[in-house]
Amino acid sequence: xxxxxxxxxxxxxxxxxxxxxxxxxxxxxxxxxxxxxxxxxxxxxxxxxxxxxxxxxxxxxxxxxxxxxxxxxxxxxxxxxxxxxxxxxxxxxxxxxxxxxxxxxxxxxxxxxxxxxxxxxxxxxxxxxxxxxxxxxxxxx
Amino acid sequence: xxxxxxxxxxxxxxxxxxxxxxxxxxxxxxxxxxxxxxxxxxxxxxxxxxxxxxxxxxxxxxxxxxxxxxxxxxxxxxxxxxxxxxxxxxxxxxxxxxxxxxxxxxxxxxxxxxxxxxxxxxxxxxxxxxxxxxxxxxxxx
DNA sequence: AAGGGATCTGAGACTCATTCGCAACTTGAG
DNA sequence: CTCAAGTTGCGAATGAGTCTCAGATCCCTT
Lengths: 141, 141
Known about the structure:
- Chains A, B: Keywords: Cytoplasm, DNA-binding, Iron, Metal-binding, Repressor, Transcription, Transcription regulation, Zinc.
- Two copies of one chain form a homodimer.
- By secondary structure, chain A is an alpha+beta fold.
- Chain A folds into two domains: about 80 residues, Orthogonal Bundle (Arc Repressor Mutant, subunit A), CATH 1.10.10; about 45 residues, Ferric-uptake regulator, C-terminal dimerisarion domain (Dna Ligase, domain 1), CATH 3.30.1490.
- Helix content of chain A is about 40%, strand content about 20%.
- Chain A has five helices and five strands; from the N terminus they run ααααββββαβ.
- In chain A, strands 4-3-5 form a three-stranded mixed beta sheet.
- In chain A, α2 crosses α3 and α3 crosses α4.
- Chain A is globular, with a radius of gyration of 18 Å.
- β5 of chain A pairs antiparallel with β5 of chain B, so a sheet runs across the interface.
- Chain A binds a DNA duplex through α2 and α4.
């Protein structure tokens, strides 16, 4: 069941993170997810695969994976954190205020400007968070 | 004690928001604040001026003032919201990871780029959140 | 200046996401 | 295969923020 050729799994093992059944289930959920699920959703989906997964473990695992750099935590709306796998490079988010859909985007220009601004203020950016909240053009509010 | 010539106060009154002793105390705290205080801090400081102010009222008032556009709510670190008066135009934040200091900045260029990107995706931005987390240049991590 | 109804407020109960404590169970190095 | 260290499930605990409700206050009206 455990695919030793999996790069994420191997990476975790290398970092001394134990790869348990529950963690694999949660990782699997994140891989399949096309949305940015909340802990609650992740728990529900992980249970389908392994009913023994508990809420506490979901939170603990997400925390472990976040520290390992495998998972990213977002807080779009203030109704609980939403998670995504960190694969595929850095990106920011555009949240559709009408549907709640989350669109990922990336702009080197903006990244560069951010670094410039920080430099002007005498800082070096460690990380940043950019979220755009908007509606499809031409929609009545 | 109530200064009728105060623009914020007058504005609220005009919008049908009642100006109470407690609300004035909270408003006063926000005016004096140079940091971006949390609800907890605001409560403590407001109590110095008017001991009758309660936690519930702080939250309710901040919510009322936010809706009125008088106050801005931020969530920098995930340890509770931090507030600031909305006067002085839009700006973004740079958070010093070493000291926790919050530096305000504004860049028309970035704002323009954000709008462009959103437009390309078929969206119009309603509002956005940009936070840079960094350290003073040349500091060892 | 006085009346009075809608709006506010304080206190404490309550919600909800997230974290903890601990005994039992797994993982993985040797 | 063994066993210490790392994990897990459960349920209790936490903490920011919200709600309920009776009493207090604001401020429009007269």
